[in-house]
Design a protein that fits this description.
The complex is a heterodimer. By secondary structure, chain A is an alpha+beta fold. Chain A contains 18 helices and 15 strands. Chain A folds into two domains: about 140 residues, NADH:ubiquinone oxidoreductase Nqo5 subunit (Beta Polymerase, domain 2, 2-Layer Sandwich); about 280 residues, Cytochrome-c3 Hydrogenase, chain B, CATH 1.10.645. The chains are: A alpha+beta, B alpha/beta.
Chain lengths: ~525, ~160
């Protein structure tokens, strides 16, 4: 990272660039907004190419900084993350989406929620706020107080691109779907059966969670963070707690790390098993679906029996854990997991060897490697397209460095590859759980006081910190800043679904409309933690 | 095929009896004669998807809602009951009321989960209501964050007037 540091120091020998912090794993650099595109271009030319973790716009006018943009990049292989900060923005900032399309949505969101202008943005349509809100409604500005503006919301027609030509027709689906699914509107432009173009209009479940979090205490915030998305509860709360613990400079004890790793892997296993089943549902393959659903149910019951909640809510708290199972439970937990792991191996071949299913999944919805890279795709979707970006491998957190996690990579980028990545990751997770629980069985019983190390610690205020966790869907990032009273000043949630959704429509052209359920489910993205 | 049969024999029957496990709060005039079958439409209204997954779990082999005559249908036109999850996000209100309008009479609404009942943790956010009852007439409430599939099953059976042992 020395080259990067020297580049930044010598950049035009310009006094506007200030290295605020440069540690072994993290750095933070102040740069003028107008130089951001050039510096980002330099960073993106480095090999291996950096990935984006989060892009935050913050209203710091009360602190005398104007609006600020924080862009957090991670340099794989070097385990180094760099935050570029552009302060003093008044009402516009230069767009970075042309250089790095992954930031497209985040910049559009900043236009909606802060009323800023991303100058030169290739697609400046509103994103998060649907047409129908009043023109000057910019809820994330600090001078906006949550009121009754929603009563004045009058839904206007959504804006979609027009398409002309013989035989082109549109199929419009949603927002309310036929199954038990979250809401989103999809507009297929098709010619015959093949799709030419797909527009995905999301943000129907937008509730304004980031604004709601502001002014809440750390504990109140956790309640909401756990409910960003049902199935990534542990990952979101771990990311949040990591940010809090960074601010409090807390090192959590090994026993806590161990059990946190176990919880994260339990979450991965139940999600992956369920997601594999759901992919089968996407093509009407009832056998695979039934087995996946059974497996998921049994794993969720195990969660409930040993941790008190089917989605593992309430376990992870800032500084530690709420409780951990006793010695006997640890043994039972391991035994039940071993049975479920055998069961998984039992039914997976039924799927892998099913010709009809293979025919549907192989070559469906191909996501090319360079597209995945440019769009900042994460999780199994990225790994199925040849990117080895498992955060458990990239960054040493929890006990993953000891487990020696390797990204499971496939090259084809189709629905089948995404399925196979999940299958292999499930296998690996069962193996990790076995190792971890064996260690846990040797471990001491802990009383509850030892489990939370946060009490009485001094927390840094008005300083940004981020936490990042590999969830079953991909890398989840929570960026946090506390105000001068220790309440949340700004909390930005960049979920894996938020990073991946823009890439889903790009995989559709050339596929037929009935393949969409399969392709959509092969990404298995949430709407809730994307829309917030 | 052989491996399939062997697996079936090994596993045996999965579907369970409903466990008597929870409290649900009935409110309005539910039909006494509602005993044959119940067709449900799910309406996600800004939920965190935990309630939705628990509803989806009802169709797995362990609960198997279909053997009680309960089914989830693709169109509101075919449904008796609207199961709503989430506090009611502003962007969805129009679609939600249109879905309700599309249900044939007689029709009922069930609020599933704490935030569908009163907004839950999302109370006070700028783009959602405080519960689905602000926009639709709720007949039945199932609390929980999320309510377990057992809770949901019991609530559905209770609503249908079936005895739950």
């Amino acid at each position: 990272m020395l080259a990067l540091r020297e580049y930044l120091q010598s950049y035009h020998s310009y006094p506007g660039i200030k290295i605020i912090e440069w540690k072994k794993r993290e750095g933070m650099v102040d740069v003028p907004a107008r130089d951001l595109p050039e510096i980002l271009t330099y960073c993106l030319d480095m090999r291996p190419r950096p990935i984006w973790l989060t892009h935050v716009v913050n209203d710091e006018r009360q602190l005398g900084n104007g609006f600020c943009v924080y862009l957090v990049l991670h340099f794989p292989g070097k385990d180094f993350s760099l935050t570029l900060v552009a302060k003093g923005i008044k009402d516009k900032f230069p767009t970075l989406s042309l250089i790095f399309p992954a930031l497209n949505w985040s910049e559009r969101e900043a236009q909606d929620l802060f009323g800023l202008q991303a100058v030169g943005h290739p697609d400046p349509r509103p994103l998060v706020l649907h047409p129908g809100w009043s023109q000057d409604f910019h809820p994330l500005c600090k001078d906006y107080k949550a009121g009754q503006d929603r009563k004045a919301f009058k839904r206007q027609p959504l804006v979609f691109p027009e398409m002309h030509g013989d035989g082109i027709f549109q199929v419009s689906v949603g927002p309310i779907h036929a199954g038990i699914i979250e809401p989103g509107h999809f507009r297929f432009y098709a010619i015959g059966e093949p799709v030419l173009h797909l527009e995905a209009q999301l943000f129907y479940t937008h509730k304004g969670v980031e604004k709601l979090l502001e002014g809440k205490s750390i504990e109140e915030g956790l309640q909401i963070i756990e409910r960003l998305c049902g199935v990534c509860t542990v990952s979101h709360s771990l990311a949040y707690c990591e940010a809090v613990e960074k601010l409090a400079s807390v090192e959590v004890p090994r026993q806590v790390l161990l059990w946190r790793t176990i919880l994260a892997e339990l979450e991965r296993v139940y999600n992956h098993v369920g997601d594999i089943g759901n992919m089968c549902a996407g093509v009407g393959f009832a056998l695979g679906n039934a087995n996946g659903a059974q497996g998921k149910e049994k794993l969720q019951r195990l969660n409930s029996d040993y941790f008190g909640h089917r989605f593992l809510r309430g376990m992870v708290v800032p500084g530690g854990l709420k409780s951990i199972p006793g010695a006997k439970d640890r043994k039972d937990l391991l035994n039940r997991l071993l049975v479920l792991s055998d069961d998984f191996e039992d039914w997976i071949p039924l799927l892998q060897e099913h010709d009809g299913f293979r025919q549907r999944a192989v070559t469906a919805g191909i996501l090319k490697t360079d597209v995945a890279l440019d769009m900042g795709v994460t999780g199994p979707a990225a790994r199925a397209s040849g990117l080895a970006n498992d955060w458990r491998e990239l960054h040493a957190y929890l006990l993953y460095a000891e487990l020696n996690v390797k990204s499971i990579v496939r090259q084809d980028g189709d629905a089948w590859s995404r399925l196979m990545v999940r299958v292999k990751e499930t296998r690996e997770s069962f193996r990790f759980l076995n190792t971890l629980l064996r260690e846990a069985m040797q471990g001491p019983e802990l009383d509850d006081e030892k489990l939370t190390a946060l009490a009485g610690k001094k927390i840094r205020l008005l300083t940004p910190a981020w936490g990042c966790v590999e969830s079953p869907k991909g890398t989840e990032v929570i960026w946090l800043m506390l105000d001068d009273e220790g309440k949340i000043y700004r909390c930005r949630i960049r979920s894996a679904s938020y990073a991946n959704w823009p890439a889903v429509p790009l995989t559709m052209p050339g596929n037929i409309v009935p393949d969409f359920p399969l392709i959509n489910k092969s990404f298995e993205l949430c709407y809730s933690c994307c829309d917030r | 095929m052989l491996s399939l049969l062997l697996r079936k024999l090994k596993i045996g029957r999965l579907t369970e009896k409903v466990r008597n496990s929870h409290l649900s709060q009935g409110s309005s005039d539910l039909p006494a004669s509602f005993r044959q079958s119940l067709h449900i439409r799910h309406l996600a209204c800004g939920s965190c998807n935990a309630c939705d997954w628990e509803m989806a779990a009802l169709s797995n082999s362990l609960y198997d809602h279909q053997h009680f005559g309960i089914d989830f249908v693709a169109s509101p036109r075919h449904a008796d009951l609207l199961m709503c999850t989430g506090p009611g996000s502003t962007h969805l209100l129009k679609a939600a009321s249109e879905t309700y309008e599309a249900l044939p009479n007689p029709k009922w609404v069930m609020a599933v989960g704490d935030c569908a009942i009163d907004g839950g943790v999302f109370k006070g956010a700028y783009a959602c209501e405080e519960g689905i009852s602000r926009i639709l007439p709720v007949d039945y409430k199932v609390p929980g964050c999320p309510p377990t599939p057992d809770d949901l099953m019991k609530a559905l059976l209770e609503m249908m007037g079936k005895e739950v042992s």
